[in-house]
């Protein structure tokens, strides 16, 4: 996440020095947290030139919430001191401060070079659940997995090439991945200066697995929920919610910080943005962070009918600003909070990422299921991750990002509440996909979608309505404040 434009390494190191003490100095914990928050306010909001102030305030609120949640969880005893110290060392010092500053140095003034900050990797398509619409089950009956040695190489290579030590593991169900006798825990142990966030359906998390995560100390699981019990079981299967509650209990006992991953659609958006929902998961269950994705019409049985309407999306935006700024929750509403990242993160832009699936296909984003390169073939040819990063396909998407908002002066940025080239500007991604003859759909549903005229026209019509409704909000709440 891009918190400040120029990474102020020394200022952030000092803030982390303060934070590092809180677990061991309980009597002055509140004082230290407050001191760190004041410094953060100065650094993120007051000293940031050429910025959109409400956007900086939102970023400050997010980091403040992380700090205050850490304090609460340490006091409650659901974040272990050892895990906390590993997080400070690996996530705060390595991933956040050191890697960002190293990447800035590497880039220097070279306009055409980019250094992504993370990758999303799906090492396996295997899953024990069958949720409707899941992209992992879009490719028919295949059950592909990447070899451990390839995943290992990718993790090592991205550190060497880009100083990137943060990896998001997605699925299938990542905790079912076992190749060459090794899985996720082995990967985390082998790369103990890296940090891993693992999307999971939660059902494989046993007491033993929770303690293994505590032992390695550089993993946080983000567990999928669809609302409360009824809505979660309706999509994921009967009894899944109860299994998730057990998993949360094991994670709390082991002191492992965990998050929730939520998909909002036309049926559950109201529930997953309600105060009751936030209070249940964050205050009662001890969720550390939440990631809210709006349903994207890709994957098996895609349908535009399940997307939140433009009006629902606007209401979600308002509720989320409240949740982060006033409610004190670390709940990120993707797309609606594009100001947090200066827009679209896809195609490996600076601070951004790309996505590799279980077949080795490399996509600009989890939500753009079209690839030009396959990492297994790139490696066979003697190439590296950089061959993909500098492909014409990825460069074209980065060109769109820079023309839209990323890296532009504050006054020239286009609407960051609508940052997405596939969802909010469907014409843009459609043109890129059709201009590159080497681009292939990554699954059956993607093949169907690219030839589906009704799908494209529907999305373009949806974007038009979004623009009419949300452009005025961008203008009054963000743009006019510059
Ligand atoms: S393409 Fe859309 S979903 Fe993907 S990173 Fe960009 S804004 Fe996010």
Would you tell me the structural class of the helices and strands?
alpha/beta
Largest sheet: 10 strands, mixed
Bin the strand percentage.
5-15%
Q: Based on CA inertia axes, which overall geometry fits?
A: globular
Number of strands: 12
Can you tell me the CATH superfamily of the largest domain? Aldolase class I
Q: What is the radius of gyration computed over CA atoms, rounded to a whole number of angstroms?
A: 21 Å
Instruction: List the helices and strands in order.
Output: HHHHEHEHEHEHHEHHEHEEEEEHHHHEHH
Strand order of the largest sheet: 7-6-5-4-3-2-1-8-9-11
Describe this structure in words.
Helix 7 packs across helix 9. The chain is 48% helix and 10% strand. The radius of gyration is 21 Å and the shape is globular. It contains 18 helices and 12 strands. The strands form 2 sheets. Strands 7-6-5-4-3-2-1-8-9-11 form a 10-stranded mixed sheet. Strands 10-12 form a two-stranded antiparallel ribbon. It has 2 domains: 99 residues, no CATH class; 372 residues, TIM Barrel, CATH 3.20.20.70. The protein has 482 residues and is α/β, with parallel strands linked by helices. Bound molecules: iron/sulfur cluster.
Task: Using brief descriptors, characterize the structure shown.
12 strands; 2 domains; 10-stranded mixed sheet; 10% strand; binds iron/sulfur cluster; 482 residues; 18 helices; two-stranded antiparallel ribbon; TIM Barrel
List the helices and strands and how they pair.
Layout: H1 9-20, H2 29-46, H3 53-76, H4 81-107, E1 118-121, H5 148-162, E2 166-169, H6 184-190, E3 195-200, H7 207-216, E4 219-225, H8 229-236, H9 240-254, E5 259-264, H10 269-272, H11 275-284, E6 289-294, H12 310-325, E7 331-333, E8 353-356, E9 361-363, E10 370-371, E11 373-374, H13 375-380, H14 385-389, H15 392-404, H16 426-435, E12 440-441, H17 444-450, H18 453-477
Parallel strand pairs: 1-2, 1-8, 2-3, 3-4, 4-5, 5-6, 6-7
Antiparallel strand pairs: 8-9, 9-11, 10-12
Helix pairs in contact: 1-2, 1-4, 2-3, 7-9, 15-16
